[in-house]
Fold each of these.
Amino acid sequence: MLASNALSGCGVGHSAHSGGPSVVASTDVWGSVASAVIRGHGAVKSLLSGADTDPHTYQASPADAASITDATLLVYNGGGYDPWVDRVLDGHPTVKTVNAFSFLGGAKDPNPPNEHVFYDISVAKSVATAVADRMSEIDPADAKDYQANAADFCRGADTIAMSEHAIAGEYPSTSVIATEPVAYYLLDATGLVNRTPPTFSAANENETDPSPSDMATVLDLINHHQVSALLVNPQTVTNGITGLQNAARKAGVPVTEVTETLPSGTDYLTWQRNTVSQLTAALRSNRSPS
């Protein structure tokens, strides 16, 4: 059962090893991070993948609950992003877990905290390290491999973090619009200033239409070239967001996609690397606004 949905570190399925550890992840994002650490020493099953299901509102099936309670290790987002996991864990407190949200650094926590911690590279590194530590306890014979794989993942993550910091150095205090809070930690790392009204982004995240005044504010920022890029989540596009993208293209403001799950055929590091590269390219193509 676990082998059918396994993910490898490169986003390709691999077979479960007979009697080996089974790791379950709430989403393919954390499944990819776990797979980069496990790498051939067991199966990794992601309960949610792709853009068709919203982790916030998903309801765990009996099969999902069984996978969670039977897992050698569970890796999940936490922070209210995948609350269906918490509901299962409430009845099974002995399940070994890695909660990504628990690694969020207090110094840059928004108020209230933003649960989209998969855009925080330091959190992803902490998750990889925690998975390696937990698996080293569970499977000490392969501990050296787990630790080496986590270190390799962290080196790749550090390269991405350097690219984020380079944006902060090259484009200080540059303004952008992000239609949803999903990119909060990416913007924090790159030093970009999000000019989006909070009520506008909240409406989009809840899949409702922004108020006419908020839409007018955002359109005015675009049409007067007061922002250097528009960041959109293509998984929750509405008519209003489509119109906003059209207005940005007409005004010459580049559009960058920030997805909430892994693009097909990719892994965590490639996903984050490509997102930062696309954002950098957008900023380079539109240097004049500040």
Note: The chain has two domains: 3-163, 171-284.
Amino acid sequence: MADVNPGATRRDQLTSTWVEIAIRIGVLGLLLYFAFLLVQPFITIAIWAIVLTVALYPAYDRMVGWLGGRRRLAAVLLTLLGLLILLGPATWLALSLIEGISSLSHRLDAASFTVPSPPTSVKEWPLIGQPLYQFWELASTNLRAAVAKVAPQLRPVGGSLLAIAAGAGTGALQFVIALIVAGFLFPPAPTLVDAMNRFSRRLASDRGEAFVQITGATIRAIARGVIGVAALQSFLIGCGLVVAGIPGASLLTLACLLLGIIQIGPAIVIFPVIIWAWTAMDTVPALLFTVYMIPVNLIDNVLRPLVMGRGLNTPIVVILIGLIGGTISLGLTGLFLGPIVLAVIWELLVAWIRERESEA
């Protein structure tokens, strides 16, 4: 009977083990991939629901105290209040936009709208003077022909605008659904936080719970310092626009709100409006409008650092970098994910440096 080579047997066993491990990893990876495909449509809603739950939980906790400990009633009332605050201005804005578009389409009625003849001085403009004069002259004599001439160039722009509008509508619908989901998360929130603490201790036994606290504090700081300040600033801007009688006040207010949230700021909207006011209004109203709008435009630079610095040990520069970078990379979802990730990384770096110093 031939001798069995122990080395060959061990190699065969090792090969069999590695093949079995590879098969298991492959099956597990395939299951995780299909699971990700199933939950992918709900990831944005889940992130926003968690953000809203964390950001609004202090208000929910106070409401529970006012209602004598009735947690479900407090969750229902807070959700309804949030929907009212969200859908009320949105409905007002939609109606204002519809009215403005209707008025604009009436003014641009092809049967009554005429384009004046271009001045001859337009020909002298560098580069664009001659083609602009020819197109302007064509529009003054045959508007339909001019529109037909530029229609192929405008079609891609129209498609892009429709895509942007569709994305905005989808995002708004997701936000509404997330707010409703957050209403169901308020009552079991302490249990969920306890489960998250246990999971974080498995990942990092020493600082796991601290990271959960950092995440919650960062979400609340971003909600107060970015969305809260932008909402307050856009409200003050909207009041000024309405009182001054600026056309399209609702659309300008929405633009200021979005620009404030994504950290660009409303200045690119406000300053052209101020310049227009000096050309279309009397001196005193234009001066009063300017004196009001300039401080309102700068108010976020004062309030945001004060509000965001409360309850956070992470430097405000790190938070702002994560906020801007996250917004650029991931859109409005990155508005919260960016600062959270950088805040946790910053705390890990600080803990690592302290451990090295204590060892030395």
Note: The chain has a mean pLDDT of 76.
Amino acid sequence: MFHVHRRAGAALALACAALLAMSSCGAAKSSAAPASLKVGLLAALSGTYAAVGKDLRDGFQLYLDTHNGKLGGHQIDLVVGDEGDGPATAVPAATKMVKDDHVVALTGVVGGGSVQALVPLLNQAKIPLVGSNGRPQLKDVAREWHTSFLSDEPGAAIAKYVHDKIPGTVFAIGPDYQGGYDELRGFTEAFKAAGGQLANKDGKATFTPFPGTTNFMPYFAQIKASGAKAVYCFYAGTAAVDFVKQYAQSDAKSLPLFAAGFLTEGGVLAAQGQSARDIYSVLNYSPDLDNAANRTFTAAWRARHDSAPTTYAMASYDAGAVLDRAIGAAGTNPTPEAINAAIAGIGQIDSPRGSWEFSRNTHAPIQKWYLRQVRPDGRALSNTVVESLLTLGA
């Protein structure tokens, strides 16, 4: 009897232990939080476009902060890298994120040239890019998505308006790098298609050395001598400040100035001051758009910044929304490839700019463009929406 009781007790103890283990495992499994994920944000935090890069960083961070630091239910470890002035610094920074940090997705990227240079790396690693600034047309967009615009679209959106308003030739000017080429091509092709004629020599846009051009006065003398009735330009960052302040002091100052919206966007407008007054620009966003998503976004932005949000911050905030939905749809253990596949199926984004969705062909937004003018808003100047122009991207 003694042996029977001992064996029965041992068996009972083993059974209890097994049940306890199963119960513990089940509890651990049911209460385990989703694994944290690393996302890389690459932006120009130094150089000509540092202000743009910081808005990209801050816009994405704002989305994270207003969503408990999570995307798709996963805690996010944001890895930030400096793009600098282009591919020479962008590619090494992105390579570190991919190979050392093992990010599941990349976002940000200010320069179109940087985007082009990153395509081979991202394809090799099978990692999606949800970029949040302009980029050129790419042959391979399998893993390239952008929440902002294609670089030729701003000029294309305003070209007919300029043609209809200006009784004569227009001088087109911008910086000599990929973004400048794309931005000016978008304007000049659409302007000529509308029946317009450029005042530039040989009928081709003028390009200024980048990033070395700080004195634009010789170019303004060319503009005046050309007989142009207006000017269209693309500049951003510190170059935009130099261009606008010098324009207001030049012989060309009486000519209407039209521009891609980056010329007067964000902090550069405050630096330009009254020199920027009355400039017309085209952009996919303005902080005075009246919709619920924009009211939420601008209130959250103003709670931590002493300025209105920019299109850069808005597009990066939207990149957070895209990744939030895609990661959430990519399963319990999201891989870069699963996230990329999920992006294709997310449909419309309720954005501060108004609702938009990705084009199946370009992976850039189908969205509305707005004409804005720099006007007084209280004691400050503001990019005020004048009218809607057209929708591009379909």
Note: The longest helix spans residues 2-31.
Amino acid sequence: MKKERDYDLTDKLLVSYRDAALDNSRQLIDEAQLLFSKEHYARTYFLALASIEETGKAHILFDAMGRNLNDPGLCKKIKKKIEMHSDKITSAFVSWLLKSENKEEAVKEYMDISVHLKRGREKSMYTDVKSNTLGLSKPSEVVRQIAAKDCMHIAVNCLHHTETYIKRNEPRKTSKFEDKLYCINTDKITKMWNTEDFWKYYIAQMRQGNSDYPMASVKYHDEYFSKSKTFTNKSS
């Protein structure tokens, strides 16, 4: 098990860490372009994806600047997110999605892209046995020129939109419910949001004038979902 590193998250550290991540993201794109010119497409893909992760890390750090850094549990979650490949990839697209005029189409496109990126990370760097054991997966044979080029394009766009967003905005101060929601396991909260019972609960809350989505999510999680109870049975 990976041991958690002992360091304090401060506003000063978050700013310097964010800027260093963005700078490294730019360097990784430059290096990926050099590899692409030499037709090293697998490594191009890997470095471009590493750039996307560094951009996502910068966004996570920027977002953290508006959160309660006096909360040890919250700080632990922030540290965990900046070390998780999937969380960094997801975060790299946030500013880009916010800029999109058609949010629904943008989200659908992102979901398709992110699945391929998360699957391609290991395959672009390491050899492996194919799942059907009929052969080997070799990076140089798996990653095509078009995939490497597309990954570089995505990395450039993620970096551009994230840098622009950070320059034009101040970190948003979050509520205690937003911070608590942030700390709940992502898979668990996603499963909860996909239940019909949660939406019935949220609609009932809105009818009472309580439309705060993070608050409703946390309260439903604590009062029902985590206890394997349902709002529908209680209200019927």
Note: Residues 176-235 form one domain.
